[in-house]
Amino acid sequence: MSEAAVATPTRRRVESTLERVVENNRFTIAVTFPLVGVALLIAGRQGLLPAGLAMNPYLLIGANLVMISPLVAGLVPLIDRRALAGLAVLALFTWGIELTGVLTGLPYGEFSYGLELGPMLAGLVPLGLPVFYFPILLNSYLLALLFLGESSLPRRFVLTLSIVITLDLILDPGAVALGFWGWDTPGAYYGVPAMNYLGWLLSGTVAVSIVQLSFDHGAVLDRLEECGFFLDDLVSFLLLWGLINAYFGNWVPVALALGLAGTLITSDWFDFDVL
């Protein structure tokens, strides 16, 4: 039996409170927040907001924490020692691979951050990077598990990694257009070089492997089937970055976002009551 299954009364109260808050505010978190985020990000990029408000890193982190709260609330009951250790290793890997990328140009190509997204580690990469990086990996893992169940590890691994790459194909063009980061030599894919995605194949392989080793897949699948909001953060992601890319005319990422959203909405898991 996992530690999560024998949680203390205090832990159960915290989990219950978090779940109730998310459940009672699903539309606000999954739809309203990303819509407001799109408006503020575009207004900030166009110079329509006061300097202290436009692209404020702490507002960005705070808004992102709200949007990932369904993922956190869904995941917390599943966190045991193995999962906690895996997430710690994943955080170290996230900072390490990003620092390597900024310092050496490998494996993503020579890039740099255009904005300080909160406190910066060594002045080069955001200290809060896991807040942005973890949801891409974990939502990809959850979606793959939703469709494949506890099927063979190779199939689940390949699908998870494919979704990770797809989400980055959606994210990077919008982030580049907003000035979050960029490459010294822009690539053909909306300013993103092909090397970035080769790098994601490498780093994603390591990161997805860590995720696969960190969780009890049966317990995650059970939680996914009973928790109606577990993938709401993915809804927020697709809505936010789909609209941002649409504003800047990045139509391939828009098509990818619509495709993933359609796949999610037509699945047996999706609950239309949130809308």
Automatic annotation (TrEMBL):
EC number: 4.2.1.161
Gene: cruF
PANTHER family, per database record: SLL0814 PROTEIN
NCBIfam families the UniProt entry points to: crt_membr_arch, CruF_Halo
Pfam families in alphabetical order: Caroten_synth
Official protein name in the record: Bisanhydrobacterioruberin hydratase
InterPro entries: BABR_hydratase, CruF, CruF-like
A GO molecular function held by the record: lyase activity
Residue spans crossing the bilayer: 27-46, 58-76, 83-107, 127-148, 157-183, 195-215
Origin superkingdom: Archaea
Keywords: Lyase, Membrane, Transmembrane, Transmembrane helix
